[in-house]
Amino acid sequence: MKYPSIFRLLFAALVISLINLEYGGFHAQGDTTWVSTYTWEAQNNPETNYDSPGRRWFQFPESDNDVEYRKVLMYHKLKCFDQGTAGGLGYACGEWDYLTYSYLFDHTGELDSTMYNHPYYKINNQEFETDTLIFSPENGAPHDTYNTEYSRINLDIIGEVTTTINLETEQVSELTSATNARRLTFTITAQELSIMGVVPGLPIKRISWNVESFQSDLLTLRVSQGEGEWQQVYAYPVEITDLLELDLDGDEFIWDNESDLHFDLLLDGVVGVSSDAVSSPSLVEAFDADGGYVRFDGLDKISINPDLLTDLNNEVTLECLLKGDADYLPANTTIFEAVNFSGQREINVHMPWSNSRIYWDAGYDGGYDRIDKAAVENDYEGVWVHWAFVKNAETGVMKMVRNGVVWHEGMDKDNTFGNIAKMFLGSGNNDVYSYRGDVENFRIWSTALDESTISEWMFKSDIEGHPSSDDLIIDFDFNGENGTSENMNGDYFGNAGRYDFTASELFLDGYAPGGEDVGYRPAFVLIQGAEESFEASVEYVTVETIKLIPPVSLSSWEVQGNGVVLQNVEYGWPADQLEVVYNQLGDTISDSTISGEIMAIENYQLMYFGESFEVIDRYELGRYITPYGINLSLGDEGWTWVYDVTDYLPLLRDSVELECGNWQELLDLKFAFIEGTPPRDVKRVEAFWNGTYYLNTWDDHVMSHEYSPEPGEEMFRLVTRASGHGFGQGNNCGEFCYNIHSVLVDSTAIWSWEIMQECADNPLYPQGGTWIYDRAAWCPGAPVATQRFELTPYVNADDNFDVEYDITHDPYGNYRMEGQIISYSSPNMSHDVELMDILAPNNRKTLSRWNPVCEDPIVEIRNNGYEPLVSCTFTYGVSGEDPSTYVFTPNTPMEFLETISVSLPYDAPLYTIGDDEDLLQFDVSVELSNGLDEELTNGSAHSSFRRPPTWAYNDLDDNRIIVWVKTNNVPSETSIVLNNSEGAVVWSRAYSEANTIHRDTIELNEGCYRFTVNDSGDDGLSFWANNDGGGYARFKKVAGGNFTMLEDDFGKYISYAFRFETNLITEHEEILVDYETTSVDVFPNPTNGIIRAKLTGFNSNVHWALINTLGQTVLSGEFNPRTYKILLIDMLGLSDGMYSLFVSGEEGQMASWVVKK
Can you give the pLDDT at residue 46? Predict the structure, then answer.
């Protein structure tokens, strides 16, 4: 007779027994060949930057070795980094829940090639069928017109004013010579202001400047005082022949008698002959418009001639000025990328990625070197920033230099550069992750520039005299006209346009007018006076600004060998291109379509075959999700998850290429080939449905798969592995949504199940993140669920059949999906029983939720014979003790490959009495009772285990234990139960008061017990990601101190077995049950709804409770057996599974199993 704790153990075992074995935890009989592949030592290596295991070749047993293997197990063993941290991110066990695939690549030796198509033309870097362009507009390059209204104050002097004087002025041409735009920034010191006669506290109302024939399309003046903010005091177009007068509005421009005055004079479209100037060395800087910049607005790129990159080997510097689009970033963008002839990345910068990190990748050697760092908005958007990306493979140093200062760097980066086949600016390879923003002065150097050199030259367009000029291999200045290639044959694709700097944008190539020793500045005369000394009028003007519309590219392509190459690039405008006139608010005033000769373009597809390649079939052996690694430790010995990969035996032969693991934890991967006769021979593995599939297009991509049996294939199995990912929209699919998955065979639905997987009972706990949340077929720190469907009863080995996989539709989320059909021979044996696992006792870490145990041992067996298994005999016990025997007869005969868990009655003293530090061995063997067992090597095994700890007072004169529980904010979720070794409930209670310490003293007789703390909210007594607060559970001694303190972040439940020693006997501790006169018989059992329980021997009112496998009461009530002989319980609304019905009355306590199907 078994009770709630055992029920829980049994069900957990059934879920994981096929995959979870561990070194030392279970030892099966039979010669075993071990194959070691990835090792901790190879990965825990600073020389490889603690890189992921990657794709490697390994030697497996030869295919012609004449050895028969009955089982192959893959031991996936993880532990945290010893020396470094996962990914260099600061956590020895990684941080996040990442997918980990175990792939096998089968090299078939067959050659194939893929037919590709490519459009003959692309317009704006996009495919099309038909379109029209104008290459020579009648009115010149199209443009938009922006109307902006400006106003200025005109002042008439009607009262007393003060006028400053300038000493030693001279007429110069440097300040007003013709240019598209000029910016003059200068300072008049407080001392100079005093000498000039500026009156402190009196408003400066007019600035006059003696000029000759001066004109500016827009003159803007900004001023600031000391460390104060800039304020704009004038903005208006001007045209004057001799004296320029700038009248200022208001009283805000007043000198404070202490500060310097700073001026920012912006001149757009300036023309002049000469002007009065004052020499002001070191206090003036000028900037003139000289060319412009390029703007990428998505789907644009500029090609970089790879022939110019052949000098790249050990060193490189790539630099440019960037101003990202603040309306778009951060997003997944690439500012430039270069790949080698195998398509592998050699150079790349994400500026930034959607997580606001900037990534710098350089050099490929099985993987690329990378450094990255989190950035803020001013690093990548809205303002011009100079960035240089530097690598020296000889020293192993990579750097990101921001505005001349090292912003981030990494060491041990020694991958050199291979031959570059393609490189683009403004986009990644294959037109992905297009950049959005402005770029100026893009350069590539074949040397690693130091930061002092970068800083000195970063704002200079003319680099004549640069100390590394001989190493300059690419220099894009973007000074040409739209519709032309960049210098050095940089072709434009898309509609990236060149734009001139306006005066307010100028910051490059600063100089001192007249030379550094002279530094001419405007000889401004400042006129001051009170408000009443002036009479003001307002003047308005509307200024038209022309903005050219960049053309689109028309590229033509031709087939060359196994690819396509560019023939030509032309530039034109769509025939329906509009020229728009906008007002100051951005509203359209008018528009018109451009005119000119229209060219109609009909497109067609180029067909070609890619390069021949070997056909390599990929098979997934298993899938794992890494644990949340913050504050996690996997111990010195690590944790092992074991996968049964016997189905892949034909592929695990000779030289095998594998790919497994990632950089989150250290991986040790071994394979055990166990000799013997398998239940059936694996004939073939066919893989399909392998990829990432989105729910909104599932039916379009996950198609029905037809399978064609081959001679010798008699039995078939479908293996699927679907893990859901993505959340945050709608139903939070696919990670957190309760989808129904179904498998159809020849269009008939055979299996359906709900995909969500319980995670709060994960044996690897606690973890650093949201490890308790149920997820779609996976949990952090656990294998992804694998479904195995026996197709044999539903198909004919002589006919083709098809399988289909359906999921409840949802507009969001995706599944990483693998589908395989395994074909087999007919069964190899008529009679055989295999001992699959010893679930208890066992010190395997993945069974640690319930081990060590007080209860009877539990094992799992499988019928490997074609004939039904009707009875088998177990021999078992602690090694060195007299063995026990038990004849097991299943309720119904076990069919071929059916598994079942069996509880073995056992009460040997050494099982639980003794030191809990001793490592003991538990031996089990099983054989068919009829003596017909055909494979004797698979029926014996042993497990290693430790006893439960022993609790006792020093002189055994006390038998009290204090159950000390502090509840959290939600006490109703917490309950606690104490069972004895027979599973009977000795004591239990629930809680109702929040944040309260509860102290219960119980008295126990000598024996073995189990405490279980349950949390109905699946979030333990403490969890970081909720509002439940914190609690704890402890078992204390009466005189002080603890027997033990339980982990409080335990998820669904925590269970703890112990042995209690005492000389005392408590009258009320144990309720004796007369099994001769009392009984509880349940029928029908199993049930799909209402059960009837016949109570025998109970003559007084009883309390009954239906308890699930977690020890939680799901139904309860009172019953009078004297009035009614049959107790009716409606289980229709309960989940399928096993339950125990407890009946308690004056006559004693009885329990019975109930199975709900």
Answer: 65
Compute the distance between CA of residue 1007 and CA of residue 392 in angstroms, rounded to an integer: 70
How many structural domains does the chain have? Answer: 8
pLDDT in tens, 553-587: 999 999 999 999 999 999 999 999 999 999 999 99
Give yes or no for a cis peptide into 780 (omega within 30° of 0): no
Cα separation, 1005 vs 984, whole angstroms: 14
In terms of Cα–Cα distance, which of 651, 662, 661 is closest to 616?
651
Q: Which two tokens stand for residue 601?
A: 């373009």
The reply to whether 7 falls in a domain is: no
The one-letter code for the residue type at 16 is: I
Q: Where are the alpha helices (DSSP H) in 446-599?
A: 451-457
Point out the domain boundary residue: 766, 801, 826. 826
- Torsions phi, psi for 787 (to 5 deg): -100, 135
Predicted model pTM: 0.64
CA–CA separation, 85 and 668 (whole Å): 17
Predicted confidence (pLDDT) at residue 158 exceeds the cutoff of 80: yes
Half-sphere exposure of 903 (CA within 13 A, CB side): 19
pLDDT digits (tens, 9 = 90+) for 301-337: 999 999 999 989 999 999 999 999 999 999 999 999 9
Q: Within this chain, do residues 491 and 387 fall inside the same structural domain, yes or no?
A: yes
- pLDDT bin (cut points 50, 70, 90) of residue 17 is very low
* Nearest-angstrom CA–CA distance, 362 and 309: 14
Cα–Cα nearest to 594, from 111, 135, 1095 = 135
Helix/strand/coil for 911: helix
Segment 939-972, tens digit of pLDDT: 999 999 999 999 999 888 899 999 999 999 999 9
- Average pLDDT of the chain is 90
| Helix, strand, coil percentages, rounded to 5, for the chain | 5, 50, 45
Look at the block and give the residue holding tokens 């030697």.
59
Placement of tokens 């972040």 in the chain: 1049
**Are 906 and 1047 contained in the same domain?**
no
Residue 1152 token pair: 């019975």
Domain that holds residue 781: 682-826
Of 739, 894, 708, 713, nearest to 809 (Cα)?
739
pLDDT for res 1109: 61
Q: Tell which residue, 821, 825, 826, has the closest CA to residue 708.
A: 821
Give the closest residue to 444 by CA, choosing from 332, 565, 317: 317
DSSP string, 997-1034: EEEEEEE--SEEEEEEEEETTSS-S--TTSSS---EEE
Q: Which residues contact 1088 (CB under 8 A, 6 or more apart)?
A: 1132, 1156, 1157
Cis peptide before 852 (omega within 30 of 0): yes
Q: In this structure, are 137 and 153 located in the same domain?
A: no
Taking phi first (over 0 means left), then psi (-120 to 50 degrees means alpha), and beta for anything else, what does residue 440 get?
A: beta
Q: What is residue 1150's predicted lDDT score, i.e. its pLDDT?
A: 75
Specify the DSSP class assigned to residue 197: T
Q: Are both 741 and 785 inside the same structural domain?
A: yes
Q: Are residues 804 and 734 in the same domain?
A: yes
Q: Which candidate, 622, 804, 784, places its Cα nearest to that of 707?
A: 804
Does the residue 15 lie in any domain?
no
Distance between CA atoms of 1007 and 1073, rounded to whole angstroms?
A: 17
d(CA 1098, CA 1146): 8
Token pair 């069996």 is found at 902
Question: Cβ–Cβ contacts within 10 Å for residue 545, how many?
Answer: 15
C-alpha 885/C-alpha 927 separation (Å) is 11
Whether 831 and 932 have beta carbons less than 8 Å apart is answered as yes
Assess whether 220 and 355 both reside in one domain.
Answer: no
CB 1033 within 8 A of CB 976: yes
1125 token code pair: 């002989």
- d(CA 653, CA 466) in angstroms, rounded, equals 60
Helix, strand counts (H, E) of the chain: 6, 81
Query: Within a 10 A sphere around the Cβ of 371, how many other Cβ atoms?
Result: 21
